[in-house]
Specification:
66% helix
Amino acid sequence: MFAQRLKELRTEKGLSIQALAREVGIGSSSLCRWENNQADVKGSQLITLARFFNVTTDYLLGLED
């Protein structure tokens, strides 16, 4: 669920993976792996993304709608 929500939020803002990486200070390779379900996100990075998109970490993880 995280991969899908991350991609949806990113595309809704019209950002490429590289642009989002610059905005939040996370490597673009990490973002790419997360969106493709190839790696797990760390807690601090999850919080960074939730703050950027103005959503909860539970929303990003698919625990709430």
